[in-house]
Amino acid sequence: MRQLVAITLFNIASTPSRWGSSLVVVVGVAGVVAVLTFVLTMSIGLIDTLGSTSRENWVIIVRDGALAESLSAIPRDALAVIEKAPTIATRKNGSGLSLDPQLVVPITLQRSGTENVTGSVLMRGITNDGLETAPNFKLVEGRMFAPGKHELIVGVLISDEYLDLQIDDELAVRGVDWHIVGRFSTAGNAVESELLGDLITVMSAYKRTTYSSIRVQLDDAEGLTQFVEFVEADPRLKVDAMWESEYFQAESSSAIVRFVAYVVSGIMAVGAAFGALNVMYSTVADRTKEIATLRALGFLPGQVAVSVIIESMLLALVGAVVGVLICVLTFHGSTFTTGSLTSLTTALKLTPAIVAVSIAAGCTIGLVGGVVPAIGAARRSIVDGLRSQL
Questions:
Q1: What is the pLDDT of residues 67-116, one digit of tens each?
Q2: pTM for the full model?
Q3: d(Cα 161, Cα 193) in Å, to the nearest integer?
Q4: CA distance 333 to 138
């Protein structure tokens, strides 16, 4: 063990003399880790945002085959049919059954601080009863919108992302000026990326006679089967009913996010591993006489191999830390807006778990890149090494 420590320290101490090749490893790993960290932060933030939007024992009903609420249309008379379904809970205030019809429409807004750059957000028409049961809803500034008036409240996640979303601003949508009267928070879930207004007023402005979705609270988790059977058995209803958690889980399983996370990052990781392998090969080749001398002095082949692997992993560790620091300085605390049909904004925050995974990935690249050169260094003949020309 003492010999292993000695040869490893020797390799580390001589690294500055090989700064060029060492820098290649560090930069390559830093690039991969930075991309991987960003993708993990983005995807986990998206999953957490959508996951926190669901409520226990709440079901969402959308049109059969609809990929998102904004693409769904449920006739208004379907509400009267659904009201007769079994296992529906009663509102806590005793005002009736826990059914919340909603209308969701996408609108295009100009981003703040840009010219001719737009983004899509959702305007949601909702009832006062629906607001009372919205997960973690809290009005943080201004007042609530008034029924029957063209008034909106805006989620805090997007109030600064787009123009005309500050309190007392007038937002022109479909030829109507909507007055922004308040800002709300929902503890960072998906609703915080939306504009909320009175359901009937939004339906009238868009000349809609259908809902996008209907939320239903059941008595307990066991009531879902009976409720779904009732809904699917009625020929007047052509809808899908599922737990809110299942719906938002499907929304968070974005094909683009998965592609970037697994394919793009994977390709970059493989490239970085090969880069580290080539650099370590070159480093070992340049140090042939040095390694042979160490072998002649009594260092064992296994000790030489392990020292080369450790050197490679240490360089990769430095690169991984640099990659994580790049992400911290670049986007930690900022927001990310998806381009999906639900167009939501997510706060990007690095967690200890993401940092640990990213650094572990960087060290793995160093391990893979150092193994083969290490084996080559250990198996090389001492005599051949001493005869080599530097």
A1: 788 889 999 999 989 988 888 888 776 667 788 999 999 898 888 877 77
A2: 0.67
A3: 10
A4: 21
